[in-house]
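Batch queue: ligand-bound targets. Current item pairs a single chain with flavin-adenine dinucleotide. No template structures supplied; prediction is de novo from sequence plus SMILES. Inputs echoed for audit trail.
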Amino acid sequence: MNPLTQPKTFIRHQRIVTPPKNQERLSGWGNYLVGESTVITPRYEEDVLNTLKERNVVARGLGRSYGDQAMNDEHSVIDCTQLNHFLSWDPENGVLECQAGVSLEEIISVFAPQGWFPMICPGTKFVTMGGAIANDIHGKAHHIDGSFVNCVISFTILLADGRIVMASREENADLFQANFGGLGLLGVILTVTMQLRRIETTYFSQRSIVIRNLDHMLETLDRYDHEYNYSVAWIDALAGGAKLGSGVITFGNAAKLSELPERLKANPLKLHRPSKLSLPVFLPSFALNNLSVRVLNGVIARVLNSPAPFVHYEKFFFPLDSINNWNKGYGKRGFIQYQFVIPEEGGKKNLTEILQLIAGSGCTPFLNVFKKMGEGQGILSFPFSGYTLAIDFPISKRLLSFTPRLDEKVLEAGGRLYLGKDALLDEKMFKAMYPRYGEWLAVKQQFDPENVFSSNISRRLGLEV
Ligand SMILES: Cc1cc2nc3c(=O)[nH]c(=O)nc-3n(C[C@H](O)[C@H](O)[C@H](O)COP(=O)(O)OP(=O)(O)OC[C@H]3O[C@@H](n4cnc5c(N)ncnc54)[C@H](O)[C@@H]3O)c2cc1C
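Prediction returned. Tokens below.
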């Protein structure tokens, strides 16, 4: 199927209209911080210009950041999800140009059947290209593929002074680099030119290993990391003593056509189906407690430990997408995802102390994902070489007094938190964790000296000039 023959492509109007505006209550995926903003929904790139009249705006994609990254209380938010057209496609080289509101889901749906797939996939396919750049997202192969910057050739961006410029490694290189992890605070990204990866099948071969403790976890990661491109571990964060750091590691590689069993060869580039399952209402906040989490952890360990040898990308990359609105399972008070990275050196000692701190905190850690990361890239990008752990915590009073202690420990270990998930850091701690913030502010000063692009997180962390 040629995407350029589809109706959603080539819709690039020259008309400038005033896009619709609505007062809306917005939150991040964690449903914890909630605020009211004017939401403007431009349908054409040219209309985005009009939104600058507001003088205090921030772009929003599919709202999959966990905290206040795409929120701008009492000011304006530009909903970019209608800017979702494909613009050009080079089938020889796999180079796609699209508007920044196109999601990974849309790219996969059109290009996977043609044998092309996004190079970097996070844990959900419901992220836009603008959002992927603004958080410089990473996937299960960060140690091999790096972060999202590695698949972007160039983008166009609407700046605070109304100019639309191209940024790439050669042209406006400082603007290009500072946007990866730049939280949408340098402009509205309009179009993106990116490299896709050739695939023979939409399946992955996988292998799981049950992990006894942290020593075993780190040894196993080191031993198999070079054999497999993808690796991710689940840790039972309630396990202590001799079982501290126990869990299950899953390794995987993209499956070649010749490797697939006959029954899968019939449709080797099979697509996902839209999920019909949904959590229609918030579950009561007490539903997740240490007792229920212990039971659920047992179920998770059993499921992870009996993998099929070949698995479809939907299960491999995006298992949580099988239930729409699963975030409501954490109750109305919401939850945070606490994701940190710490250096490999001293990693075992620091991870032990952090896991002990969490297990003894009285908070309820759930869905704990552990990965090894490769070299770091952008100025405010999260990843660097070391270990990363992401933990969901339902919001409670105890949690709010606990995370500052955890932040101190992560900082002491030479680590930092992922800003795309954060909801609680303060300016002082952020600046200690991201010592290169001054370099980023210099780019902000150059391109947006009046802070036209502003958001809740930019005010919370002092990302303003
Ligand atoms: C289940 C789940 C799993 C996840 N797994 C991972 C993972 O494995 N790795 C990872 O790195 N992340 C992961 N994430 C986080 C997610 O990938 C990022 O938060 C991503 O940025 C969300 O994209 P979005 O389109 O929803 O953007 P939003 O959340 O709406 O916005 C994110 C940021 O992008 C900016 N932005 C959006 N559009 C534009 C634009 N056009 N121009 C300029 N700025 C823009 C916003 O201002 C904001 O700062 C996960 C999230 C969920 C819910």
